[in-house]
Amino acid sequence: MKSILIKDTTKEEREQIIKESLDCGGGCENCSSCWLGGGSPFELYQPYIDGEKEIAEINREYNARYQRGN
């Protein structure tokens, strides 16, 4: 498996990584993330696509907010 780190990918590759990772096959209308307050998953990972934050960092921040109930 190829590295998904920012330093090892282009912006286009990061966009594809997020699209493929979030594609459950059911379409966004069946996803509970947005309407339960998770927000758009594509917006959530935009800092990764833009090369600003790694996926692991975004996940940690999101989980920390969820665990604190924010």
Name the features.
70 residues; mainly alpha; 5 helices; 56% helix; globular; Quinolinate synthetase
Describe this structure as you would to a colleague.
- This protein is mainly α.
- It contains five helices and no strands.
Structure in a nutshell:
It comes from Suilimivivens aceti. This is Quinolinate synthetase. The protein has 70 residues and is mostly helical.
**Overall number of structural domains:** 1
Quickly give the structural class. mainly alpha
How far apart are the termini?
35 Å
**Mean pLDDT, as a whole number?**
81
Q: Helix and strand string, N-terminal first?
A: HHHHH
Helix content range of the residues, please?
A: 55-70%
Number of separate strands: 0
> Number of helix segments?
5
Q: DSSP strand (E) fraction?
A: under 5%
Query: Shape, please?
Result: globular
Unreliable stretches (pLDDT < 50, length at least 5) are none
List the helices and strands and how they pair.
Blueprint: H1 11-22, H2 34-38, H3 41-44, H4 46-49, H5 55-68
